[in-house]
Design goal:
492 residues; alpha+beta; D-Amino Acid Oxidase, Chain A, domain 2; 7-stranded mixed sheet; 15 helices; 31% helix; globular
Length: 492
């Protein structure tokens, strides 16, 4: 049963919506969480929780159960087949979590749901948002909820973002791989996800960003998007994305996920597989190849998550398809042999950042505000930090009556998102350079890998610890650490 009124209405019960709700409920805020899906998803795309995210989640009691459910991966390696280009170790980082925690998104959602219920909250399911008028959201069943604030946590195809008229345009052009803090949007960060020029202005955005998005983007989402989002949508894919296109060839094509589909974006195949051989099970590997990137990520149940950029992924990749990807892009000496596919799917992502993170009473968090490729495993982590930052801002606003904290949230989180999107975009581009450039790329990365400062800066960036650094507008809302060592990070 939906209430007629609430302080905060959160649309979307994925990890971002659940984390925001749990933090608000623990602070005593009257919060209502709704989701279109009739039940929670049991399959998922995200599979890693990084160190800084665990630090933030510890504030709501979620870090300990997550660590108990996952497996630590203290190393992240970039390879070209058997050649190690960049070895990154998280050991020695100033954190209680010196590793990447490998844990399925479904487990993360279950832990966050437990934290929400422990604080007295719950999720109302089967609620499809169809209209937004000022502070009132109307659902498909005719119910209306009036809230002081509405949080769009409903994924890339966000209904609420579209109804609020917030554009979802491409981000600025990309920055260098080892750029300093991703928390400020200031400094030498020209890069991005589109081939636009790098003449970014003082705000860190390109002229295209400053002028807004195209009329299509400004109109928000399509009627299909406004009908609500499914669990798949929360992870960044739409039903159309999952069903479109024939399955790819042996390696899914050679364009690294750049589909000919007019909707653009990058296409990925995903599979949780049982496998013999391959890299160690305590290491996450990003393979670079002419065919496209491939991610090897061990999971707690003994399976390995394989994610690969392909032209047209099959809807349900089988063992032969995944084996072909590994044979074409993975290790040669320690060959990985796929024995079974536990679960597989496909998805498409675009590198995009919302034009703004606030429109009156509506605030964006997670994929509703930013999407990018899975390279580096940053998406859900960025969204979870949005969640806690937004919960802090909402709590402060509801207690003080001043909306300064909400304005600060919107102003600060967008540059953080832009920087992370650029980083993921550059990893993707580095993975798929043309054959003539590949030896130069490998030589450059190998040379940089011998520089301790480069490896350490990359470890900070992947772990998210670089976001602790203060930036021009001050430390990000909701990310203040209570640990003295958390303030230490290498400067860019």
């Amino acid at each position: 049963m939906l209430p007629a009124t609430t302080d905060v209405l959160i649309v979307g019960a994925g990890p971002v919506g659940l984390a925001t709700a749990a933090a608000l409920a623990r602070a005593g805020v009257d919060v209502t969480v709704v989701d279109r899906a009739p039940s929670a998803a049991h399959t998922s795309r995200a599979a890693v929780v990084h160190a800084h995210t665990l630090e933030v989640l510890d504030r709501i009691g979620a870090a300990t159960p997550l660590v108990a459910a996952g497996i630590p991966a203290p190393r992240f390696t970039i390879r070209d087949r058997d050649r190690t280009l960049v070895p990154v170790t998280f050991a020695g980082l100033p954190t209680r979590y010196p590793y990447a925690l490998m844990v399925p998104q479904s487990t993360t959602e279950a832990v966050l749901h437990d934290r929400l219920t422990a604080a007295g909250g719950r999720v109302v399911r089967g609620c499809e948002a169809v209209a937004l008028t000022d502070h009132t959201v109307t659902f498909a069943g005719g119910e209306r909820v009036t809230a002081r604030y509405v949080v769009a946590a409903d994924g890339m195809h966000s209904t609420i973002r579209g109804l609020a008229g917030i554009g979802f345009g491409p981000d600025a052009p990309p920055t260098d791989l080892s750029a300093g803090s991703s928390g400020g949007g200031s400094g030498p960060s020209s890069p991005a996800s589109s081939p636009a020029s790098s003449d970014a202005g003082p705000t860190g955005t390109s002229p295209a960003d400053r002028s807004g998005t195209s009329p299509a983007d400004r109109s928000g989402t399509s009627p299909a998007d406004r009908s609500g989002t499914s669990p798949a949508d929360r992870s960044g894919t739409s039903p159309a994305d999952r069903s479109g296109g024939p399955s790819g060839g042996r390696s899914g094509g050679r364009s690294g996920g750049r589909s000919g589909d007019s909707s653009g974006g990058e296409s990925f195949a995903l599979a949780d597989v049982k496998v013999d051989g391959g890299p160690p099970r305590d290491e996450v590997v990003l393979y670079f190849s002419r065919a496209g990137l491939l991610v090897w990520a061990p999971l707690p149940d003994g399976t390995v998550r394989i994610v690969a950029a392909v032209d047209d992924a099959p809807e349900h990749p089988d063992a032969a398809y995944v084996q072909a990807l590994l044979d074409d892009r993975g290790p040669l000496r320690s060959r990985a042999r796929v024995t079974d596919v536990v679960w597989g799917s496909r998805f498409r992502v675009r590198h995009r950042v919302a034009d703004r993170f606030r429109a009156g009473p509506v605030l964006l968090a997670g994929d509703a505000g930013h999407v990018h490729s899975p390279a580096g495993g940053q998406g859900m982590n960025l969204g979870l930090k949005d969640a806690l930052a937004l919960a802090d801002a909402l709590t402060e606003t509801l207690r003080s009556g001043s909306e300064t904290a909400l304005d600060r949230y919107a102003a600060e989180r967008r540059p953080v998102a832009q920087s992370v999107v650029r980083f993921a975009a550059q990893l993707t581009r580095l993975a798929t350079v043309p054959a003539p450039v590949r030896p130069i790329r490998n030589a450059l990365l190998s040379a940089l890998a011998h520089v301790p400062a480069f490896r350490r800066r990359l470890a900070y960036r992947l772990s998210g610890l670089d976001q602790r650094l203060p930036h021009a507008a001050g430390a990000p809302v909701g990310e203040e650490s209570t640990h003295e060592t958390d303030r230490t990070a290498p400067r860019a």
